[in-house]
Specification:
The protein is of the alpha+beta class. It has a domain at 3-120: Gcn5-related N-acetyltransferase (GNAT) (Aminopeptidase, 3-Layer(aba) Sandwich), CATH 3.40.630.30. Helix content is 31%, strand content 31%. α1 crosses α3.
Length: 169
């Protein structure tokens, strides 16, 4: 896949269904060495209208910065979301069939640039264990163990990470 095969853009609420599908596929491709099945299902339950409506409302929120990457055929391949009020990267997912092509790094760079343009000077996140290396390669420093509370109230282990947006990686 080369850069002519995909494009980055700001999603609309109409993209929420495809984004939820990417989230589900990406989470359920996580190797179970990190998280048991019940946590994967809590992290990303089967896509339904409630999840799609929730994500559509997040995308439409003035406090959110979001980006998606799609194929030339307009299939959503990945997305990311930042809560600009807290400076927290809330989501960054690439469909498992599109990993290893630099799409995650491209999404991250687009989000960071959008945040810089809004005056944010840093981003924090809770990285899943399987994503910690990705964020480290992209300039995020591990601050230590953390807990990510999931929508159903369950918790999963994570790594708290930080990046100053004053410099590019």
């Amino acid at each position: 896949m080369n850069s002519a095969d995909y494009q980055y853009r700001v999603p609309s609420p109409d993209d929420a269904a495809a984004m939820v599908d990417v989230h589900f596929a990406a989470v359920h491709a996580v190797v179970n060495d990190h998280y048991p099945d019940h946590l994967l299902h809590a992290w990303s339950p089967v896509p339904d209208e409630r999840r799609r409506a929730w994500l559509a409302s997040v995308i439409a929120s003035p406090a959110a910065v979001s980006c998606l990457v799609e194929s030339s055929g307009q299939q959503v391949l990945g997305f990311g979301l930042v809560d600009t009020e807290s400076g927290v990267l809330k989501a960054l997912y690439v469909h498992p069939n599109a990993t290893g092509c630099g799409l995650g790094k491209g999404l991250l760079q687009h989000l960071e640039n959008q945040c810089r343009s809004l005056g944010l000077t840093a981003l924090t996140l809770n990285a899943s264990y399987n994503a910690e290396r990705f964020y480290g390669r992209n300039g995020y420093a591990a601050l230590g163990p953390s807990v990510q509370v999931l929508a159903n109230g369950e918790s999963m282990g994570a790594v708290s990470m930080f990046k100053s947006l004053g410099t590019n990686v």
